[in-house]
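hey team, just a heads up i'm posting the complex here instead of the shared drive bc the drive is being weird again. everything in one block, sequence lines first with there labels, then the predicted structure for the whole assembly after. its two chains so it's a bit long, scroll down
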Amino acid sequence: MCSCYYSSVWLHVNTGECNLASKHVPLQYLITLHWFETLFLCVFQRMPAPIRLRELIRTIRTARTQAEEREMIQKECAAIRSSFREEDNTYRCRNVAKLLYMHMLGYPAHFGQLECLKLIASQKFTDKRIGYLGAMLLLDERQDVHLLMTNCIKNDLNHSTQYVQGLALCTLGCMGSSEMCRDLAGEVEKLLKTSNSYLRKKAALCAVHVIRKVPELMEMFLPATKNLLSEKNHGVLHTSVVLLTEMCERSPDMLLHFRKLVPQLVRILKNLIMSGYSPEHDVSGISDPFLQVRILRLLRILGRSDDDSSEAMNDILAQVATNTETSKNVGNAILYETVLTIMDIKSESGLRVLAINILGRFLLNNDKNIRYVALTSLLKTVQTDHNAVQRHRSTIVDCLKDLDVSIKRRAMELSFALVNGNNIRGMMKELLYFLDSCDPEFKADCASGVFLAAEKYAPSKRWHIDTIMRVLTTAGSYVRDDSVPNLIQLITNSVEMHAYTVQRLYKALLDDISQQPLVQVSSWCIGEYGDLLVSGQCEEEEPIQVTEDEVLDVLEGLLVSNLSTPVTRGYSLTAIMKLSTRFSSVNRIKKVVSIYSSSIDVELQQRAVEYNALFKKYDHMRPALLERMPIMEKTASNGPTEIMQTNGETEPSVPDTKHLPLVTQPANQANDLLDLLGGNDVVPVIQTTLPTKPASAGGELLDLLGDLSLSGGLAPAPSVPVSQPPFLLDGLSSQPLFNDTSAAIPPMTAYSKNGLKIEFTFERANPNPNIAVITIHATNTTEADMTEFVFQAAVPKTFQLQLLSPSSNIVPALNQGSVTQVIRVLNPQKQQLRMRVKLTYTHKGSPVQDLAEVNNFPPQSWQ
Amino acid sequence: MRFMLLFSRQGKLRLQKWYTATAERDKKKMVRELMQVVLARKPKMSSFLEWRDLKIVYKRYASLYFCCAVEEQDNELITLEVIHRFVELLDKYFGSVCELDIIFNFEKAYFILDEFLIGGEIQDTSKKSVLKAIEQADLLSPYHTC
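-- predicted structure starts here --
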C-alpha cells in the first residue's frame, strides 16, 4: 500500500500540476505534493528549480541602484533562456511569469513570446492563465507570431471548462487582430447564443471587439441579438447594451432596426429606478448605475433625430433627472448622462430647460469634477440654448477664478460665447481681470477673444481703444502677431480718437518697451499722429506735454534697444521717417536715417537708404508720400487687404504674414500707383465706416480745405495726387480719354500767377455722365524752367477726385511746352464744382508754393 | 477605454492594460509622459484632464494612481466609478489591499481586471459575481505554481 501510495504520488508529481480532470484537489494533498516535488527535483533534476516569482520580485526590490537591478535581471533572464531552451514544461509557467514582471519594469521580453504560445496550448489551467496573460502583454497584433494563437483560442473557445472559454474570449476580445477576428467570429457568435450567462456576457464584449476590427461582420451577430434584452442577468444586460450601442453607432440600418427596442429599454431603466434595494448591484443607494448610464447612452443614440423615439423616452428622462440622488458621484454620473441625452435628442423645451438647470446646479457643486463636466456640457449647448445658458453666466464667470486649469479654460471659452451687446461691459471687466492673472498658456487665446468680442460689441470707440490698450499693456507679449495689423486698422478708422490713442500709447511706451506687439502698434501710431501728440490736442483726457525731441528719443530708443525685434525696429524707423513731415526737427531725423543706411540688418538698411533718397532726390514727394493714412476698408479676411497707395506706403495684402513691413519705396511705388490709378474707370467707391466728425487728420493738403470739409472717409481712390518721377513715365502722355462729345464744354483758366498758367479742358466720361474729365495744361511764361512741379487738388465732400499721372514735372520756360495731367471728378449729386489747388515747384533755385481756389467752372462741367 | 495604468507616486509602473494595439516604444513614451503629467497635478485639481487627443480620468488611492484614458463620448464621472469598483474588487480579494499586494501578486491583479473588464467595457456589474468567478478559477490552479 505504501508503494502504491508513493507511485500514485509519483504520477502526479511528474505532471507537476493538477490535471483539469480532477479539479477538486484537497489542499492537504497539494501541500504534500509540493514537498515531494521539491524533494524529487533536488535529487533527480540536473538544474536547481528556477526561483519563484515572489522570490525574484523580493530580490529585485533589494537592488539599490539601477545598475544593480539590471545585473540581477540579466542573470535571471539568462537562467530563464536556458530553461526555455531545455523545453522545461514544469517551470515554463513560472519563468514566463517572471519574464512578465521584468517586462513591466521595462526590460525586453520578446524571447518569451513563443513560450506563451506553448503555455496556451498546455492542458493545465495555470499554464493557460499565465500564457494568455503573457499573450495579452507580449503578443499584440503587431507581432509576427500573433496569429499562431488562433488555433489554440479556437479550441479553448470550445473547451469543456467555462473558465478556459472565458480566458479565450477575454484574450480575443482585448487584442485579437482583424484576421483572428475573421477566423473566430463564428465561434463568438455561437457563444453569444448560449444560455450560460457567464459566457454570454463575455461573448457580447468579444463581439464588440470583432465588430470594431472587422465592421463587415456586424451582420452575422444580428440574429443573436434577438432576445439579449430579455435577460435577467445584469452582466449580460450590460454587455448587450454595449453591443447594441456599438452596432447602432456604426450602422444607420442597425439603428433603424433597433429603434423598436426603445420601449423595452425604457422599461428596464424604469425597473432599475423603481425597484427596491438590490444588494448585488447597489452602489450608494442607486441600483446598478453602470447599467443605467449605458442604457441612457443607447437611448441617446436611438432618440437622436427621431421624434417618436424621443417622445417615448421623455417621461423616463424627466423621472431620472428629478429623482436621482445627487449627494454622491454616482448619482451625478447618471444625471450627467441624462443631461447629455436630453440635449441630444428631440426633447421638448421643458426638458431641455430642466437639463440646463441641472448643469447650472452642477456649477455650484463643491466637487470640481462635477463643475468640470458641467462646463464641458454647457460649452456644447451654448449655441443652441443660448438664453438658458445665459442665466448661469455669473456662476460661469466665477469659475474663471478656479484653481483647476481645465475648469478655467472651459470657463473662459464659455464666457466668450456668452458675451453680447448687453453684458459686454461687465463681462469684459471680468475677462480682463482674468487676462491679468491667468497662466501664460491662456493669455494668447484670451487676448484674441477680447479683441474679437470688443470688435463685435464695443459700446463706444473710447471704450474700444481703452480695452485694446489694457490688453496690450497687460498681455502685450502674448498677443497674436496678426492682431497688430488688425489693431492698426481699427485705430486708423477711429478717427476722432487718434489724439487720445497716440497719447495713451506713448505713455505706455514710456513705461515698457518689452512687449513687441504693443511697441509696434505704438510706434506706428506715433509715426502717424505724432503731431497730435506734441500739440497736446487730446480731448478725452488731460493732454500731456511732450516735445518733439522727447518723442524722437523714445523712437530712437526702440531702434537701439536689445528688446526690440527686427520687425519692431522697422516700425520705429518708418515712424521716425513719417515724423519728418509732421515735426520740425527734420535734421535730426535725417541724421538717424543716414546712420541706419549702413545697418547690418538688411531690412533696416534698405529702408534707411530709401528714406535717405527721399530726403535727397525726391524731397518734393516726401510730404505726399508720408501723408496720413485714410480709412482702410475692412474685408472679410479681417486685415487690411487693399493696397493702400495714398501715401506711398504699401501694406501687403496677405493676412497671414507675421508682420507688416511698412516699406516706403519711392521709386517702385510709382508703378503700383499707375496700376491703381491709370487705366481704370472711375467707379463710385463704396465708403465703409465714415467718421461722424470731419477728420482732424492732419497733413498739409487737407488743411487746405478748411470749410470745404473733406471727410477722411475717402476710399482708396485718393484725392491726393502723386506726381511720378519722369524716368518711369517718359512717353506716357495723358490723353483725353474720350473724344469731344457734341456738346463741348469750353475750357477755362484755373490759375494764372507769376508766369504760371493753368488751363482746364473738359470731356465727359462715357458712359457715366456724373464723371467730369478735366485735363490741366500748365504753361510757363517766365524765362526759367519750373522744375519739380507738383499739382495737387482737393474737392468738397460730395465729390470724388482722381488724379492721373502728369506728363512731366518740368514746366518749360517761355511756353516751350506744357505739363498736362488728367483729373477725373465724380459728381453724383450734381453740385457746383469747386476746387482748391496747390502748386509747388522750384523756380530759379527757390521753392515756390501757392494755394488757390478755382470757382469759375463752367456750368456744363457739373450739370 | 483605451488603456489603464497603475503607478506609484515614485513613477513606478505597477500594471498596464492596453485595449488598442500600440507599438512597444510608443507605449513606453506615453506611459512616461502621462505619469509626469498626472504626478504633477495638485490635490485641488479635478480628476480629469486632456492629454494629446484623449480624455484622462485618474484617481489616487493611497500610494497608487489609477489612470484611465477614455474616448470622447465616454462619461468621465462613471469612469471614476469604474476605477472605484476595480479597487473594491482588489480590496475584497486581497483583504485590505495595499500597493505591496499588487507588486507581489501582479498577475492576480491582472486576472481580476480581466474578469471585470473586456476590451475596456464592464463585463459584470455585480461585485459578487466577479469575485466568485475569480475564486472558482483560482481553484483550478494549485497554490504553489509560480
